[in-house]
């Protein structure tokens, strides 16, 4: 397993990310690709259940977890000679691909001081290419839960001046999609858009859907759209608080295999802090974290509530220990469900809300869980939460496919390390070429993504957020671009 000091380096890295933004202010499983089962059941649309406006002061929800114990990590233990048969504790991974396993014991892993670099792709900008990718890997036997992304409609909500309206409730309905008359609720993100996928709700991907504004505006004229047709709805203008409320949750895979980039991640702290400290204007940012491992470990999930006290959050991160995991997939389903349900998020009508998933493995898609990630995606869309997956080294085809599902559905890009311990953190069957993305220092990419979300409020009272580009050699293109 990882030494405590190694994990503290990883923890310090994400503490650096918090410092940067603090300086700114404050069931049968569904398989989709591969072998099918029932479509996901939409979560409740009762907003009183899904949101909370109570201020949060941080702290471990349900108490700080036990960091060690449980089944441990038989894969890593076997590599160090501690456990003779790693398969005796966990099931073997799916056979569609040889799983990448680092043959070096984490205790003796050589330190690589090369700064981490990363790339990102937005599958919503090449929507057809994304659908083709899903079809192709389905044919290769790559299994995920079912999120039928066909028939997407982008709803753009603007005011009379053409400015985006973030946090607006959009209602979708049709005679076949909502026969009970209860509309499906969605919420716009910072740029005033939301993506509607009828297949997420068991609807036809070639039908017509009516869209209108919710929350007391049901008497406004409905706009009909055929599947795949994008529309614009004009709504009353909204007032954005200054500084902009920003809730950021880090959803972290805390299993033993997440030690590959610890030392190099640590190098990004100072740069990230400096660059985001210079964002103009600065947001009112709060931080939370959800950790997940897997069944048989000391804990499956652990949650730290939102806080604007960066030192308190940093201290909690410093106590985290990475351990366990066993087989390749982990409890991402359970972690994402907790991340949405347990921390005290602010009112989604008033705050930008982001989740950064940092992981190197897919969820246990062959396991029956109370809330599969397909349901959590529906919840995130309903609340206007963007999910930014950051694929770490040793991610495979299955991990990439799941991460891209999460990102595309919520309107976020898919982020991946481009020079991790095992090379680019994409699967062997990826359609992402080196010419498809700009390779940046990871710190610069994270800063850019946050700044873009805040800049999406351009035209409102919040104004446009700008970030300085004073970091030397922070951005280069990969070979051939």
Brief rundown of the structure:
This protein is α/β, with parallel strands linked by helices.
Please characterize this protein's 3D structure.
The chain is an alpha/beta fold and 481 residues long. The chain has eleven helices and 17 strands. α8 packs parallel to α9 (373-383). The longest helix is centred in the N-terminal third of the chain and has 19 residues, at 4-22. It starts with a helix and ends in a 5-residue tail after the last strand.
Average pLDDT, all residues: 76
Major sheet, described briefly? 10 strands, mixed
Q: What is the total tally of β strands?
A: 17
Distance between the termini: 39 Å
Number of helical stretches of at least 4 residues = 11
- Low-confidence blocks of residues: 1-56, 73-109, 265-270, 470-481
What proportion of the residues form beta strands (DSSP E)? 15-25%
What is the general shape?
globular
Helix content: 10-25%
Structural class by secondary-structure content: alpha/beta
Element-by-element helix/strand order = HHEHEHEEEEEEEEHHEEHHEHEHEEHE
Secondary structure blueprint with pairings:
Blueprint: H1 4-22, H2 47-50, E1 60-61, H3 74-79, E2 117-121, H4 127-139, E3 153-158, E4 169-173, E5 184-187, E6 193-196, E7 208-213, E8 223-226, E9 231-234, E10 245-253, H5 262-266, H6 269-277, E11 284-292, E12 301-307, H7 310-318, H8 332-341, E13 352-359, H9 373-383, E14 385-391, H10 397-410, E15 414-417, E16 439-441, H11 442-455, E17 475-476
Parallel strand pairs: 3-9, 10-11, 10-13, 13-14, 14-15
Antiparallel strand pairs: 1-12, 2-15, 2-16, 3-6, 4-5, 4-7, 7-8, 11-12, 16-17
């Amino acid at each position: 397993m990882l030494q405590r000091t190694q994990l503290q380096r990883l923890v310090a890295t994400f503490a650096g990310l918090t410092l940067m933004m603090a300086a700114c202010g404050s069931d049968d499983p569904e398989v989709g690709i591969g072998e099918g089962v029932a479509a996901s059941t939409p979560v409740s649309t009762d907003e009183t259940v899904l949101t909370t406006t109570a201020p949060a002061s941080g702290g471990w929800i349900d108490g700080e977890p036990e960091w060690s114990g449980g089944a441990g990590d038989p894969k890593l233990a076997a590599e160090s000679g501690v456990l003779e048969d790693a398969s005796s504790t966990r099931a073997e991974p799916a056979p569609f691909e040889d799983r990448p396993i680092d043959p070096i014991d984490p205790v003796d892993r050589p330190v690589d001081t090369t700064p981490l670099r990363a790339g990102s792709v937005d599958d919503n900008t090449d929507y057809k290419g994304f659908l083709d990718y899903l079809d192709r890997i389905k044919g290769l036997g790559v299994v995920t839960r079912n999120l039928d992304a066909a028939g997407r409609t982008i709803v753009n909500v603007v005011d009379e001046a053409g400015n985006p309206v973030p946090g607006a409730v959009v209602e979708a309905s049709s005679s076949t999609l909502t026969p009970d008359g209860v509309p499906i609720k969605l919420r716009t993100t910072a740029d005033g858009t939301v993506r509607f996928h009828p297949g997420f709700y068991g609807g036809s991907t070639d039908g017509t859907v009516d869209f209108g504004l919710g929350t007391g505006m049901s008497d406004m004229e409905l706009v009909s759209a055929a599947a795949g047709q994008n529309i614009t709805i004009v709504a009353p203008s909204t007032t954005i608080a200054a500084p902009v409320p920003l809730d950021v949750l880090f959803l972290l895979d805390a299993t033993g295999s997440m030690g590959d980039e610890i030392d190099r991640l640590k190098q990004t702290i100072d740069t990230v802090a400096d660059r985001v400290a210079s964002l103009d204007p600065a947001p009112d940012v709060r931080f939370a974290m959800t950790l997940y491992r897997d069944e048989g470990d000391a804990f499956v999930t652990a949650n730290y509530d939102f806080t604007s006290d960066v030192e308190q959050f940093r201290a909690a991160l410093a106590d985290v220990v990475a351990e366990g995991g066993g087989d390749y997939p982990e409890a991402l389903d359970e972690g994402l469900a907790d991340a949405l349900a347990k921390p005290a998020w602010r009112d989604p009508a008033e705050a930008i809300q982001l989740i950064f998933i940092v992981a190197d493995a897919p969820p246990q898609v062959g396991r029956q869980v109370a809330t599969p990630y397909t349901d959590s995606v529906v919840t995130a869309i309903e609340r206007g939460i963007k999910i930014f997956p950051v694929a770490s080294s040793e991610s495979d085809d299955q991990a990439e496919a799941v991460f891209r599902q999460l990102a595309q559905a919520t309107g976020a890009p898919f982020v991946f390390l481009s020079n991790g311990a095992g090379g680019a953190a994409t699967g062997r069957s990826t359609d992402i070429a080196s010419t498809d993305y700009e390779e940046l220092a990871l710190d610069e990419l994270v800063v850019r993504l946050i700044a873009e979300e805040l800049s999406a409020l351009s035209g409102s009272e919040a104004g446009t957020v700008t970030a300085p580009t004073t970091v030397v050699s922070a951005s280069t293109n990969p070979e051939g671009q």
